[in-house]
Design a protein that fits this description.
The complex is a heterodimer. By secondary structure, chain A is an alpha/beta fold. Chain A contains 10 helices and 14 strands. Chain B has one domain. The longest helix of chain B is centred in the last third of the chain and has 31 residues. The chains are: A alpha/beta, B mainly alpha.
Chain lengths: 380, 66
């Protein structure tokens, strides 16, 4: 049904209201799941409550008879997950919309567990919990993002224990609702904000133990997907005994408690100093051993070189003496020693006076040297 | 050692080899008096060169720190 309207021929509001009522009425009675965001009991036959989506910021008013509400045991409370059988109604006199519920049922733990298991299977199949998606934690983070409850013990557990280990540790704390209807939205927003800060190297989501229902937000699909998309490594530190929330599976590291998280995110300064001192000692020992060893090697090498050369020189002297003695023995030196002399003229030995002309220059070789002489005329 | 010798100066190894040659020639015999005289004089010279080199080495060894 469409209305043809113009500024000259507008539709009267009553007509619009009837059309809206008609539209909305066509949806009929349906089963709706959500979480009780607000419930204030008041005297009277009609009770009003606000139903909110479990993941996103969608709310709607619900009107229910006091009798239908009282029929549920244990009594419905704020924060609880419920399904209602309701028909949407447009309240024309006020211009408001609400669900008129005929029946309300709490979502039981069994049902929630089933839903959780189904979600876990879907996310596992998608690979969100896969070990190769886990990012390693930095050895020493520049700053740590901490998401925790307001004035919570979990916050102090993380802060105090981290500072004991590494006094210089720096935190960026975001206090948010860690249970109830606002939890998923607030945690997800804080996560996105901290992930966007450049010097935040790791993010811890901490909460003390709680009931199964209290911890349900930490298994919420939207939150789990937000964690898996984080560029910064995320540590889950939710105190719990048995059913671990899905956050533990998607987190890059799962700490058993907020105190345990402190141990995982910063190194122990004392331990590190001791380890460094030990390494230093070992390094020093290795170097000094090496220097000692090499010094010995060089001393030994010098000694060997010296002794080799010395012995070669000695040997050489002996050898030269022997060679020189043999030269002497085989030469005419021995004959000359006995007083003989060799007379040479023009490099030849003189055997006949005729070989030498008058004034001829003679070389006379004797044992210890040589002398020169000149032939005179009467030498015949 | 040979390579570090200044030009014109005979190395220890060469001097020693030449001295050995002189001895061999003298031992072989059948040479003239002139030749044996010349060989003897050359042998004396070569032996002096070798001895000077060896004594120099010895001095250097002794002056080096232990």
């Amino acid at each position: 049904m469409t209305l043809q309207t113009s500024p000259e021929e507008p539709a009267p509001l009553r007509q619009v209201a009837r059309i809206l009522n008609d539209y909305i009425g066509r949806l009929g009675s349906i089963w709706v799941e959500g979480q009780i965001a607000q419930l204030r009991r008041r005297p009277g036959a009609q009770q009003y409550l606000t139903l909110r989506d479990t993941d996103e910021q969608f709310s709607v008013s619900v009107v229910i008879s006091a009798a239908a509400l009282d029929a549920v045991t244990p009594a419905i409370e704020e924060g609880q997950r419920v399904v209602v059988f309701a028909k949407p109604e447009y309240w024309a006199s006020q211009g408001t919309l609400h669900l008129r519920a005929r029946e309300i049922r709490p979502v039981g733990v069994g049902t929630l567990l089933e839903q959780l298991e189904r979600l876990k299977q879907v996310l596992t199949a998608e690979g969100l919990f896969s070990p190769d998606r886990k990012k390693p934690l930095p050895f020493l983070p520049r700053r740590i993002g901490l998401i925790c409850g307001r004035a919570a013990a979990a916050k102090d557990d993380v802060l105090v224990n981290s500072r004991l280990r590494w006094p210089g540790v720096s935190f960026e704390v975001r206090e948010v609702a860690v249970q109830g209807v606002a939890c998923v939205t607030e945690v997800t927003e804080a996560l996105a904000e901290l992930d966007g800060l450049a010097d935040i190297d790791v993010i811890v989501i901490a909460r003390g133990g709680g009931s199964f229902e209290d911890l349900l937000p930490f298994s919420n699909e939207a939150l789990i997907r937000a964690v898996s998309k984080c560029r910064t490594p995320v540590v889950s530190a939710i105190g719990h005994e048995q059913d671990s929330p899905l956050l533990d599976l998607v987190a890059d590291l799962r700490a058993s408690t907020p105190t345990d998280a402190a141990k995982r995110i910063v190194p122990d300064v004392g331990e590190e100093l001791r380890a460094i001192a030990q390494l230093q000692q070992r390094g020093h020992r290795v170097v000094s051993n090496r220097v000692e060893q090499d010094t010995r090697f060089i001393d030994e090498s010098r000694r060997r070189i010296r002794s080799t050369i010395t012995s070669r020189v000695q040997h050489g002297l002996v050898e030269i003496d022997q060679l020189s003695a043999r030269v002497r023995a085989l030469s005419p030196a021995a004959t000359l020693d006995r007083g003989y002399a060799v007379v040479q003229f023009a490099h030849s030995v003189v055997r006949d006076p005729q070989e030498v002309p008058v004034d001829g220059e003679l070389r006379i070789r004797v044992a210890h040297g040589e002398l020169t002489a000149t032939r005179t005329k009467d030498g015949s | 050692m040979t390579k570090t010798n200044p030009p014109g100066e005979i190395s220890y190894e060469d001097a020693r080899a030449a001295l050995t040659e002189v001895v061999k020639s003298l031992e072989a015999g059948g040479i003239s008096l002139e030749e044996s005289l010349a060989l003897w004089e050359r042998g004396e010279q070569l032996a002096a060169t070798c001895r000077a080199w060896l004594e120099g080495a010895q001095t250097r060894l002794e002056s080096a720190p232990e």
